Amino acid sequence: MIRFDNVAAGYPGREVFSDVSFTVPRGKITALIGPNGCGKTTLLQTACGLIRPLAGEVLLDGRAIGSYKRRELARLMSLLPQSREVPSLTVERLTAFGRYPHGDMRNAKEQVEGALRRAGAWELRHRELRELSGGERQRAYIAMALCQDSEVLLLDEPTTYLDIGQKNQVMELIRSLNAQGRTVLAVLHDLPLAFMYSDYVALMDGGRLKAFGTPDETREAAAKTFGVKQALVTLEGREQIIFY
Fold it and tell me: What DSSP state is assigned to residue 90?
């Protein structure tokens, strides 16, 4: 689906990561984890063409990301960034912007309502973004990403600002969207959530890809990288990986 072939990327005068190679499988949830500053956000921005690789290539369905026109790519892939400006808009208006790549912002009432309801932001639809708490604002931006209705979702810390119950609600939403056929690549800082909800885990550290595989295949490497212990336990009849 999304393939990184020996990719290096960064900013003028500073390489953030290099020699990264792995494939985000179609129809799966892939968690991107690693310590702060290891290059996770930069990799996500490289995946959607916001940053051009310094070396190597990023391919979407076998085609170089750089060969797509912006609107064409936006119909296939949506990005929920970690940091962003807060415009003077209502939540409903922001959500409607998700339809921009499809050219039907003015005639998308059903799509906007559906996205707001799925993101748990329906009750916020008439409120200004600048009036919202961090968690409420996060749900608004998730609604916009859903309204874009792309096959691939790139999510940079989608559970930021949310309490533990809201975090689980967002991850359940991501799982339900995945069940509908969407491919997800998500930067996650909460290790238990990452390993509970993902099909694959990409672990980065020091600007390098340290491990890629299923949660079982990567849990030891993750524990070593974060300096914690890990174990496989059974909770309510279900095996789960815990970190402590």
Answer: B
Whole-number pLDDT of residue 83: 66
pLDDT at 27 over 90: yes
Distance (Å) of CA 103 to CA 7, 71, 180: 33, 9, 23
Calculate the CA dihedral of residues 111, 117, 121, 123 and round it to 10 degrees.
Answer: 110
User: What is the rounded average pLDDT of the residues 142-150?
Assistant: 90
Neighbours of 123 (CB within 10 A): 12
Q: Can you give the pTM of this predicted structure?
A: 0.90
Range with the lowest mean pLDDT among 80-84, 171-175, 213-217? 80-84
Question: Residue 23 forms beta bridges with which residues?
Answer: 3
Residue 77 falls in which region: left (phi positive, over 0), alpha (psi -120 to 50) or beta? beta
Residue pair 186/30 in contact (Cβ under 8 Å)? The answer is yes
Name all contacts of 66-75 with Cβ < 8 Å and 24+ positions apart.
71/101, 73/48, 73/49, 74/100, 74/101, 74/148, 74/150, 75/101, 75/102, 75/148, 75/150
Residue linked to tokens 């309510």: 236
Residue type present at position 232: L
Q: What is the pLDDT of residue 238?
A: 83
Angle in degrees, 0-180, between the axes of helices 109-118 and 134-148, rounded to the nearest 10: 130
